[in-house]
Amino acid sequence: MNAIESIEYTTYNPHSGELSFPLRMDFYWQAIAVYAIALLCYILIRGTFWDGSIDVILHDPIVLVLGFLVALSCAWLLGNWFMQRSLVLGSSYICLRNRFRTRIIDFCEIEAISIGKQKILRVRGMYKVIKIRLRSRRRLLRIRPSLYEREQELVQALSTLKRRIANKP
Predict the structure, then answer these.
(1) Positive or negative CA dihedral for 111, 117, 120, 123?
(2) Count of alpha carbons within 13 Å of 22, Cβ hemisphere only?
(3) CATH hierarchy code of domain 12-23+84-166
(4) Beta pairing class for 86-89 and 93-97
(5) How distant, in Å, are the alpha carbons of 101, 141, 158 from that of 114?
């Protein structure tokens, strides 16, 4: 078993000093709930009651759009659940992983880290994007902390890493 396979999906492993941040999925559950409730309310309002049963017009464009949004949100949730994306901060690396691929970035490959704050609106958290400049890559690696569970803890860990890299000779 190599080092990549030995990393477990734990929140914190005190023996190795790893912090794991899985992808947030609560937004998808909330979207499914809101769209499904809106669909049921619309069906109850527009449907006709006849002898204790309800007749629903399924060809109504609003029913089709709401049904499509519920199905799309369910598919997106299942896709993200299946991929099991997470970000792992180890003692000497950052690991971006999903079900099929693991990318390990050693701290020695990182040139700089920039932590940007939300300027106008606070939509899903205080921090908008974290940009990591790598020596081996032309484009910046962008991490959105609001997409991961425990956003503040992730930003704090990356801030500590930023200070460590800045103090490195």
Answers:
(1) positive
(2) 14
(3) 2.30.29
(4) antiparallel
(5) 25, 10, 10
Structure tokens at 151: 């956003």
In 10 A of CB 145, how many CB atoms?
25
CA pair distance 58, 68, nearest whole angstrom: 12
pTM of the model: 0.70
Residue 103: partners with Cβ closer than 8 Å, 6 or more residues away: 95, 96, 97
pLDDT of the chain, 169 residues: tens digit per residue: 333 433 344 444 444 678 888 988 888 888 999 999 999 888 888 776 666 666 677 778 888 899 999 999 999 999 989 988 999 888 888 888 888 998 888 888 888 888 887 555 555 556 678 888 888 888 888 888 888 888 888 888 888 888 888 777 6
Tokens of 27: 């937004």
Burial of 132 (0-12, 13-18, 19+ CB in 10 A): buried
